[in-house]
Amino acid sequence: IDEIDAVGRKRGLGFQGGNDEREQTLNQLLVEMDGFGSGQEVIILAATNRPDVLDAALLRPGRFDRQVVVDAPDVRGREMILRIHARKKPLDAGVDLGVVARRTAGMVGADLENLLNEAALLAARSGRGRITMRDVDEARDRVLMGPERRSLVVREADRKVTAFHEVGHALAAQLLPHANRVAKLTIVPRGRAAGYMMPDADDRLHVTRPALEDMLAVALAGRAAEEVVFGDVTTGAQNDFQQATGLARRMVTEWGMSARIGKVALASDQGDYLGGGAQPLPMSEATAFAVDEEVRALLDAAYARAVALVREHLPRVHEIVSVLLVRETLSGEEFSAVLQGHELDPLPPAPPAPATLPG
């Protein structure tokens, strides 16, 4: 039974009393599963992402004896899922599904299936008989960020601001000791983003405070680069601020990483949905004010680190931006090479244009 919460909700919560058809269905289900005439050998499995609304009688031993939380697959699980979906697809010898698995943290089986289907479509449109690693990378970006918007006309001044912004993120990600390294860097608009820096996938179960502080600095390094280079700031850091503020607030209210607030929980992870996020707990006005001050202190410290890092490596930042403006996209290996002062190989020839329907 999929989505069992449709019939298994707690009884007595309806607006029309306790005798609606849904409750009659639930009562009959309870009787069939563990009633007086339950001699048939039937095993029942059910799935839901709302275990909090299920009736208690449905979950007691004799009905559903065991509850299993199915989380997103780890890197080994993702590789096995990719191998299953790749069985009937012609993969080029250069496609390493282990590498793809490491770059797709957080994706579930449906996402991975969609990724390989998208890669197959890209290969077919380009007239290739096999799926290459380039197709897989582009498909991953499409799944995560949306398709490229190359038809969008972007002013050169905006391209330059975007380049410095993204290189700021990448510089912090590559040089801070506990940050995830750069997987990809681009100034090609995609989805709602003017450009983006994609870090390496992260499957860590436990994250230390220094690693969280580095994450804050990476998130704010784009704005830091804008301020250092141009002496002014733009609206491009909106999403960065949302991510950084949310992370800093969790450090203070959920993970006990503020000496002033102490080791107390000011948020509950018992959301309505599995994976639905934490809910704030009631707190006094003074405590809420202190939380805001601690969050701001974490963000200010992270921003100061990011500004200092950009100032220290400013000549290299300009060099990387000049390369990025020409190539538009850099892989993690290419970014690392340019950061170390190496020259990149010339750009490969452009792929053939997609086939068009006959007129």
From TrEMBL:
Keyword set, alphabetical order: ATP-binding, Cell cycle, Cell division, Cell inner membrane, Cell membrane, Hydrolase, Membrane, Metal-binding, Metalloprotease, Nucleotide-binding, Protease, Zinc
BP terms from Gene Ontology: cell division; protein catabolic process; proteolysis
InterPro entries the UniProt entry points to: AAA_lid_3, ATPase_AAA_core, ATPase_AAA_CS, P-loop_NTPase, Peptidase_M41, Peptidase_M41-like
A Pfam family that the UniProt record links to this protein: AAA
SUPFAM superfamilies: FtsH protease domain-like, P-loop containing nucleoside triphosphate hydrolases
Tree of life domain: Bacteria
Family, as annotated: Belongs to the AAA ATPase family.
Protein name listed in UniProt: Cell division protein FtsH
Taxonomic lineage from the root: Bacteria, Thermotogati, Deinococcota, Deinococci, Deinococcales
